[in-house]
């Protein structure tokens, strides 16, 4: 019970900060039931009067609440189905703006993590060149044999793991409460959202996992034209420290520097889109945070990706779904796009394929015969989620992340070539995957996979039959004897429910008192 009170108190403080910064003013009251509208009106009474923009209010509140809320905001920018396209777009601007921690502290973390003196590990270890809420980056120099080279050393911020664990427990409490009190919220799977955030944070809080993601990406893309990943220095990498090859690259938002090196920005824009699609379709493994801060161009004109804390994975079924959806939009085969949704089981079978195809056409037609600068991807995405809601399509977290990354990738590519058309640029990659996986070669591979699966089932048949016989016997036993619930059990259940209701009432009064004290201050 004490844990619930603690969660409520911390969430109450977050609610107060949101109200004070004017975040609740971003909510459309007409979309809320009457009790929620009343609560919204009360919350706005303590709103701070300011001339800041909508984005400023949101980012200010999240920044005040600390690094976990900043990460939550960045994560929710990938979920316009949850927060709406407008707020998701505002959250895209949310950046980690925190001062670096001390040089001595960083050096101590490095030596403690790697178990060797700093002088043994590095020839030099410079001050931080970039700092975020989770970690900061130092430029250092190492010697391997007779070779010296520069490296980037990422050091985890001290105490950050404990802070994230506490805040994540609050999010889980709020998500379970939302699913219980608002059944209509279950379509958006709030607990699943927190699960995804927790998995993402587990990777970001263990730099060995981020190193593994970078290593896997490098291995999968080693032969990709115009794309590369910095190599990982595993000897100087541990839970709290990640060392990689130093990238002396050019920022994609610096056209003068690109031009000075003779790099074609239009070609680089095509590489951005085609590399992302190739990784998603071919590998089912993609960089899910491909904004301009994580992408550079090297002197040879290659696209270089860094920061592998947020990665996306999709299975073979989702890859086929994505490829056929993209090809359907490119070729204007909206009927096929609709059929793919039904075949994948994403739209319940009682809906009409023809009606869904009509809705898909409303999304697809506006994008044809236009260049990227004429297309509002935010409106396109908003319409897509509206359509999936009408047709009871369950939220698919991995597809939402994929779609949102596509929007970010297109934005980066558009900054390099304002006339770039995403769909014509995507077509060669999509057609290549379709030909490879759904053509004759793909059918032969599927047949081989099916034969192997059938072989495993045949080998396991005796064990499966034995388990089925045991299960049948157990069901027959329960059918004859029934499931007996003792009077003592019924009494215990009643007493437990009474205690829960009593403590719930106490908790509500405590929270009301805390809010009253806050307002009196």
UniProtKB/TrEMBL annotation:
Keyword Kinase: yes
Residues in ABC1 atypical kinase-like domain copies: 94-341
Gene that encodes the chain: ubiB
One GO process term, biological-process aspect: ubiquinone biosynthetic process
Annotated signal sequence range: none
Pfam families registered for this protein in UniProt: ABC1 (PF03109)
Pathway: Cofactor biosynthesis; ubiquinone biosynthesis [regulation]
CDD domains the UniProt entry points to: UbiB
Stated name of the protein: 2-polyprenylphenol 6-hydroxylase
UniProt keyword annotations, A-Z: ATP-binding, Cell inner membrane, Cell membrane, Kinase, Membrane, Nucleotide-binding, Transferase, Transmembrane, Transmembrane helix, Ubiquinone biosynthesis
Keyword Nucleotide-binding found: yes
A molecular function GO annotation: kinase activity
Organism annotation: Phreatobacter aquaticus
InterPro entries: ABC1_dom, Kinase-like_dom_sf, UbiB, UbiB_bact, UbiB_kinase
Family: Belongs to the protein kinase superfamily. ADCK protein kinase family.
């Amino acid at each position: 019970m004490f844990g619930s009170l603690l969660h409520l108190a911390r969430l109450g403080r977050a609610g107060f900060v949101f109200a004070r910064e004017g975040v609740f003013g971003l909510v459309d009251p007409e979309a809320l039931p009457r009790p929620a509208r009343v609560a919204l009106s009360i919350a706005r009474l303590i709103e701070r009067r300011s001339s800041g923009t909508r984005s400023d209010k949101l980012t200010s509140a999240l920044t005040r609440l600390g690094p976990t809320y900043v990460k939550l905001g960045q994560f929710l920018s990938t979920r316009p189905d949850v927060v709406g396209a407008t707020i998701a777009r505002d959250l895209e601007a949310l950046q980690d703006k925190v001062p670096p921690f001390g040089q001595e502290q960083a050096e101590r973390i490095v030596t403690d993590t790697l178990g060797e003196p700093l002088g043994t590990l590095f020839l030099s270890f410079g001050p931080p060149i970039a700092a975020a809420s989770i970690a900061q980056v130092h430029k250092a120099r190492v010697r391997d044999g007779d070779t010296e080279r520069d490296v980037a050393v990422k050091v985890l911020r001290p105490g950050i793991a404990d802070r994230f664990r506490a805040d994540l427990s609050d999010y889980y409490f709020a998500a379970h409460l939302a699913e219980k009190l608002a059944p209509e919220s279950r379509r958006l799977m709030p607990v699943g959202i927190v699960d995804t955030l927790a998995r993402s944070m587990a990777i970001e809080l263990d730099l060995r996992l981020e190193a593994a993601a970078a290593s896997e990406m490098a291995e999968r893309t080693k032969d990709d034209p115009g794309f590369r990943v910095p190599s990982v220095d595993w000897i100087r990498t541990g839970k709290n420290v990640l060392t990689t090859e130093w990238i002396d690259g050019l920022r994609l938002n610096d056209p003068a520097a690109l031009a000075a090196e003779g790099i074609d920005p239009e070609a680089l824009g095509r590489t951005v889109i085609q590399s992302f699609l190739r990784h998603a379709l071919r590998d089912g493994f993609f960089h899910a945070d491909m904004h301009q801060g994580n992408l550079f161009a090297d002197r040879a004109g290659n696209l270089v990706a860094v920061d592998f804390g947020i990665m996306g994975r999709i299975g073979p079924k989702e890859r086929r779904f994505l490829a056929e959806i993209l090809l359907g939009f490119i070729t204007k085969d909206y009927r096929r796009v609709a059929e793919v949704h039904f075949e994948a089981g994403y739209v319940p079978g009682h809906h009409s394929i023809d009606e869904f195809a009509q809705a898909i056409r409303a999304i697809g037609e506006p994008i044809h015969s236009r260049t990227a600068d004429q297309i509002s991807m935010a409106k396109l995405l908003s319409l897509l989620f509206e359509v999936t809601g009408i047709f009871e399509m369950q939220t698919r977290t991995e597809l939402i992340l994929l779609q949102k990354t596509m929007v970010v990738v297109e934005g980066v590519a558009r900054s390099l070539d304002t006339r770039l058309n995403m769909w014509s640029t995507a077509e060669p990659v999509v057609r290549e995957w379709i030909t490879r996986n759904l053509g004759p070669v793909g059918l032969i591979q599927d047949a081989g996979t099916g034969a192997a699966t059938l072989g495993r089932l045949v080998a396991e048949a005796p064990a499966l039959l034995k388990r089925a016989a045991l299960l049948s016997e157990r069901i027959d036993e329960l059918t004859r004897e029934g499931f007996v619930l003792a009077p003592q059990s019924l009494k215990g259940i009643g007493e437990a429910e009474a205690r829960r209701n009593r403590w719930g009432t106490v908790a509500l009064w405590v929270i009301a008192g805390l809010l009253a004290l806050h307002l009196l201050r």
